[in-house]
Amino acid sequence: MPEPGKKPASAFSKKPRSAEVVAGSAAVFEAETERAGLKVRWQRGGSDLSASDKYGLVAEGTRHTLTVRDACPADQGSYAVIAGSSKVKFDLKVIEAEKAEPMPAPAPAETPGAPGVALAPAPELEGSAPSLEGSNSAAAAGPAPGCPGAPDDAIGLFVMRPQDGEVTVGGSITFSARVAGASLLKPPVVKWFKGKWVDLSSKVGQHLQLHDSYDRTSKVYLFELHITDAQVAFAGGYRCEVSTKDKFDSCNFNLTVHEAIGQGDLDLRSAFRRTSLAAGGRRTSDGHEDAGILDFSSLLKKRDSFRTPRDSKLEAPAEEDVWEILRHAPPSEYERIAFQHGVTDLRGMLRRLKGMRQDERKSTAFQKKLEPAYQVSKGHKIRLTVELADPDAEVKWLKNGQEIQMSGSKYIFESVGAKRTLTISQCSLADDAAYQCVVGGEKCSTELFVKEPPVLITRPLEDQQVMVGQRVEFECEVSEEGAQVKWLKDGVELTREETFKYRFKKDGRKHHLIINEATLEDAGHYALRTSGGQALAELIVQEKKLEVYQSIADLAVGAKDQAVFKCEVSDENVRGVWLKNGKELVPDSRIKVSHIGFACNLSAKLHFMEVKIDFVPRQEPPKIHLDCPGRTPDTIVVVAGNKLRLDVPISGDPAPTVIWQKTITQGKKAPAGPAPDAPEDAGDSDEWVFDKKLLCETEGRVRVETSKDRSVFTVEGAEKEDEGVYVVTVKNPVGEDQVNLTVKVIDVPDAPAAPNISNVGEDSCTVQWEPPAYDGGQPVLGYILERKKKKSYRWMRLNFDLLPGLSHEARRMIEGVAYEMRVYAVNAVGMSRPSPASQPFMPIGPPSEPTHLAVEDVSDTTVSLRWRPPERVGAGGLDGYSVEYCWEGCSEWVAALQGLTERTTMLVKDLPTGARLLFRVRAYNVAGPGAPVTTKEPVTVQEILQRPRLQLPRHLRQTIQKKVGEPVNLLIPFQGKPRPQVTWTKEGQPLASEVNIRNSPTDTILFIRAARRDHSGTYQVAVRIENMEDKATLVLQIVDKPSPPQDIRVVEAWGFNVALEWKPPKDDGNTEIWGYTVQKADKKTQEWFTVLEHYRRTHCVVSELIIGNGYYFRVFSHNAVGPSDTAATTKEPVFIPRPGITYEPPSYKALDFSEAPSFTHPLTNRTIIAGYTTILCCSVRGSPKPKISWFKNGLDLGQDARFRMFSKQGVLTLEIRKPCPFDGGIYVCRATNLQGEAQCECRLEVRVPQ
Predict the structure, then answer these.
(1) Which UniProt keywords are listed (predicted)?
(2) CA–CA gap between residue 826 and residue 747 (Å, rounded)
């Protein structure tokens, strides 16, 4: 029957087999690949072999040979050959010459890896589970590299990964990881972690040590994590990471710490530790959480203390809330509290605590939030409920950051008033994730933990007793289908060895362990272990009892005749020894010994009597023993790539000859024409032509192995060509038997062709594809669609439920980003290879309709349109616009121009006069045309009479000022239909030749290149249509700089002052005079300084002149253009005389500053403690300075040494040294001077401390 378990197809058509050679001889290993040119590498101990005096490497086409010359014991070990992603291991054993015995070579074995994936030794290949014998140590180590069975793998970084371990409290355990170093230039970097973040290198100490070593012989690095005096808090998930310059690999493993738990105690860690699903007892959840990490949500309500009764003081009180303790504890106490309650992931604890503190803030969207964590058993349902502040608010539910969509009955959304509920049915491990409820910009989070029930054993194993060579099959039934189990023999885990001694089979909830041919070494105790227990059974293997079917008989024969002695036994493999008078007979030319089947013959030439005795052996016709009714076995279905093994039991005496043949269909035979004397319908029937291929090879991918009681037909890596009808024929001299076996090879479908993309929209498209050319022998169940961005390498799956059809509408894409699509076909076997990627496409939506479409002008044959760009253009940009029109009441649109226009205005010409037309405009981009915008009312193509009207701009309605030499450009818009006649005049006269007029259909322009003073004046413009006219008047003022003032003179000079006077300028520059600038200049220096600016009067006084100096004065006039070019200047200098001056000092009245004393801050009552020095303070003012006196109860304190008096800046201080109760009383401060006297008092109470 076919071997269960799918394996990828091998790159080898012939694989090397393990060999045993005598020391000193040569060992030759041969391998053949499926195709020529494939690179083949030979390895030993994980290191590549190269041609040398020791090793010979030969490659001829598809045939590759490795020769180990002059073999010695140092050469024995594990070898491997690698081609592509396939790897085959084989062993070389070297024995001494005197110990050499003929031995059949073991069957070839192959351990191919998955294509394109680094081979990592699975736990079945390592057999290195930590030992639990004793509590002192439990090493997680495997066989040494280079030894037979060592899982050397040059494709991955790990040669051996650390395995799960168990230890009791106080015990020790060592986890080992081996890394191949043959191809590494530098030692790899290895880090050990507990949980997700805790780096164990910082925890090295009394309980934890890290060791590393390097074996130069095997070139393997050994890294060890040694834990001593294990505690319960050490349990959990661990991770080992190894990294080199360009590679990275990691491995997760668990540590279980056993501790005796009394009745009534609750093992929180085992209740909330994530169970393992994947190979090796580890799994990775949807959120990529590390397996075995202690779940903090399980500690939210800690029901019982996990402490052992060794110290009752350390036991935690009942109903203890760890998070409540952390929230009220200072940060310095976090580490102590975490250690006390077994929390190992400190970083995760701080992150959770920070989130809880943020949630303490009052929420505006939620009245009741989700709990921090929920727990549900696998297969049950859970309800997550929140209560909103706004019953009409929109709610979104997220799972690991992705919005949850309505899909069947898995997720149910309920809304009752302000409550929103998410119900998750049939919870599985995939639902173990973080969930969020989002309302507007606020959200609340929780974590759902799915507790997997333990896998229980429903039907245990049964003890078996077999004979040597018989087939053994253990069967056990568990509570769940597809559960992960481990088979153990005498406490050691069984693996799928290269010799395929053990076969593991899963059939729903049933698990089978099959031993093909039992030996005495297979006897022992076998166990099947699950997460919920184990089943144990004993296998007893007994040797076969030898029976003599026919013993030798006495003979009497003549001399010189032949005497034949025969003996028949029950075991054909037993070799008989013939004795004569107690001495062994040695065969020679006269005595012959033969072994035929179950009979032993002895013949000899005797020298007396002539007698011959013949023995006729027992005969039995051949027979094929198949467990099938009607001799028509069912079709044998095998998955492509798996091993097909047809084990056919046979019997017969003598041993029959077995012939395997495969029926090959050649095709239909063409109907032949009827013979002249044949009936007319003789050629009307069609028939199939079959041919049979003889299968007789004993090596290679397809081979036949035959023994006395069975014949085994094996196909390594079944292919489509292996499908067909196989004929098994057994023959011996007695008879013949024949059976037909139908083999069907099923496979995943072929990859579909590249999908086609159509109906590309703004964020969606339609994907269409064709079914695969070959469905793999099973109907296609559906399709899986993936997409990625063109410049990305990450494919994203679009559907999780299979698509039954051949098209799908993909949505939620980003506009303007190029995408590619590919599709997988899925049947009952699995998923096909991906199809080729589709042609890149870019989701682009058409633009929206243009806005503000309006008719600007209409004539007898033209219509002028104007519009604005669309509000949404999109990533495709804007290629242009199309303009169309149609007659009123008609639906046929006519293009107004060929192609597109980029402008937002258009003059539609050659229209029929009087027609009523509708116009529409569309915007175009790469995605095509957008929605059109149409005129609201039909437009009549006919020119309309419109009165002429001048639209004089506001700035032209007032006087227009221009400087001399500047250009003048006056634009005046007007309206009127038909085009009006424009006329310009200046004060009723025609314009000068240098004044230019330019007219257009909508405006008129008066233009002067360089203005002059004579261009000033009043201009009139008139527009006329027939007898209708409109006029406007413009005042143009050309201004220039003014002339200087006139008749400047000095009116008077006195002291330091000079009075000036002048007349306004003769020419004001055709604008108002803004003012004058007056300047002075010393006669000596002739440097001019401005005295007055923007002075508007025509007379002024210049002050602050220097006595004895002579001054000149000048005046500039200013207007809007600027100052005059020249100034009016005094002709003669003005001298400032030196008059005689006598100083008379001022007289002042003497002031009296005397003042009587007065207290500005009086004394205050005081109560003091005895023995402590005290002071009394106040402040006083007075002139002259008053005399200060202090009194206690009327007694002067001036002579008492226990009192010190200070006076500084009017602040008076009395210091009492170490007062006692007798110092209490009334204190008076008195101030006295010539103007009077003042005093203030206070009460001082002295108390004795109790």
Answers:
(1) Actin-binding, Cell adhesion, Immunoglobulin domain, Muscle protein, Phosphoprotein, Repeat, Thick filament
(2) 10
In a 10 Å sphere around its CB, with 0-12 CB exposed, 13-18 middle and 19+ buried, how is residue 167 labelled?
Answer: buried
CA 793 – CA 787 distance, rounded (Å)? 10
Which tokens belong to 972?
């005046």
1164 belongs to a structural domain: yes
Mean pLDDT, range 531-548, rounded to an integer? 82
pTM of the model as a whole: 0.33
Are the CB atoms for 563 and 611 separated by under 8 Å?
A: yes
Element (DSSP H or E) covering residue 268: helix 268-272
Q: Does residue 151 have a pLDDT over 60?
A: no
Residue 797 sits in the same domain as residue 855: no
Backbone angles phi, psi at 1142, to 5 degrees: -115, 130
Residue 708, number of CB atoms within 10 A of its CB: 16
- Judge whether 1165 and 1246 are in contact, CB under 8 Å: no
The answer to whether residues 612 and 625 belong to one domain is: no
- Tell me the percentage of the chain whose pLDDT exceeds 90: 28
Residues 793 and 730 in one domain: no
Taking the C-alpha atoms of residue 258 and residue 266, their distance in angstroms, rounded to an integer, is 14
DSSP helix/strand/coil, 434: strand
List, edge to edge, every strand of the sheet that includes 756-758: 756-758, 765-768, 807-810
Q: Which residue has the tokens 């010190």?
A: 1204
Give the pair of three-digit tokens for residue 970.
């006056």
CA distance 437 to 370: 8
Q: Give the Å distances, CA to CA, from 1 to 120, 521, 643, 659, 705.
A: 29, 26, 10, 18, 15
How many CB atoms lie under 10 A from the CB of residue 1003?
15
Q: What is the mean pLDDT of residues 84-102?
A: 71
β-pairing, 1003-1008 vs 995-999, is: antiparallel
Domain that holds residue 411: 366-451
> How many beta carbons lie within 10 A of that of residue 1250, not counting itself?
3
pLDDT band at residue 58 using 50, 70 and 90 as cut-offs? confident
Which pair of tokens denotes residue 630?
Answer: 């009607």
pLDDT over 80 at 285, yes or no: no
Distance between CA atoms of 998 and 996, rounded to whole angstroms? 7
d(CA 828, CA 807): 21
Query: Rounded to an integer, what distance in angstroms lies between the CA atom of residue 740 and that of residue 5?
Result: 25
| 522: three-class secondary structure by DSSP | helix
Contacts (Cβ under 8 Å, ≥6 apart) of 781: 802, 826, 827, 828
Task: Tell me whether residue 946 is in a domain.
Answer: no
Q: Is 711 helix (H, G, I), strand (E, B) or coil?
A: strand
725 and 639 share one domain: yes
Distance in angstroms (rounded) separating the CA atoms of residues 994 and 313:
115
Residue 632 has pLDDT above 70, yes or no: no
Identify any residues that bridge with 971 across adjacent strands, giving them in sequence order.
Answer: 1005
One DSSP character per residue, 1016-1083 reads -EEEEEEEEETTEEEEEEEEEEEE-PPPPPEEEEEEEEETTEEEEEEE--S--TTS-EEEEEEEEEET
Tell whether 463 and 447 lie within a shared domain: no
947 vs 313: CA distance, rounded Å:
108
Any bridge partners for residue 341, and if so which?
none
If asked whether residues 854 and 919 sit together in one domain, one would say yes
Q: What is the CATH number of the domain that holds 568?
A: 2.60.40.10
Q: Which of 451, 470, 500 is the C-terminal boundary of a domain?
A: 451
* Residue 884 to residue 656: CA distance in whole angstroms: 93
Count the domains in the chain: 9
How do residues 715-745 score in pLDDT, each as one tens digit?
888 888 888 888 889 888 888 888 888 888 8
Cβ burial, residue 178 (10 Å; 0-12/13-18/19+): buried
**Could you tell me which of 1226, 1238, 1236, 1241 has the C-alpha nearest to residue 1180?**
1238
CA angle 478, 482, 485 (to 5 degrees): 60
Flag whether 695 is in a domain.
no
What are the tokens at 524? 């022992």
